[in-house]
Every structure is written in structure tokens, then in C-alpha cells.
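Task card 7
Instruction: Convert sequence to C-alpha cells.
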Amino acid sequence: MSTEKFTIDGNQLVDRVKQLIREGNIRRVRVLHEGKTVLEIPLTIGAPAAAITIMAVPVLAALGAFAALVTECTIEVEKVDAPDKSRQG
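Output:
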């Protein structure tokens, strides 16, 4: 499992989180502001993207309201590493 962090403008927050959800290899997304976790979105690995998006609609609405209040925040993404095919026999 790997973790990535990146800082974005508040007005890009919802679109970026939607994009991450569609990627499909994400286990968890955390939104941080001033070093504190504001929102944590656990995602089920292997769940259809449509189902995850439908369940995430209320979360994305709240995220949009938060994004309107901040100029900058950090997204921490916990990804599931792809299996190493060179080691499979």
C-alpha cells in the first residue's frame, strides 16, 4: 500500500476527489486542512465505480461546502499497490 499527498486549491477539491474515486485503486481519501483531517472517505476495493459514486454524493456535497470556505487544502490518498507480476510464477 502506498500513500500520496498533494496540495490543491479549494475550488479544485471536489473534481479531484471524484477523479480519485474513479481511478478504482484507492483505499482511502483524506482531506486535510492546516494539518487536521477534515474528511475521510473509505472506499471499497473492487466495488463498481457507479455504486461508489452514488454512495459518495452526500459526501461530495459536504466536500463542496467545505471547499468553498478554504483557499488551499491537502489530499492524502492511500492506494492499493498493483500486484508485482514479475514475481508470479
